[in-house]
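Write out this protein's structure.
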Amino acid sequence: MTCQIRKATNGQFFVRVVASNGLTLAHSETYPAKVNAINCARLIAGGGTIEDWA
């Protein structure tokens, strides 16, 4: 499982949870600050991978 930090069209940030087969499992709410999306990804990923696509 991978957590991707993405930038939404409105300029805010969100986290997308992606399975090892490439399917999107879930996505978070949007956050105005990137640091908040990073904190969300850390909570979800545990010790997993976090990718910054923003």
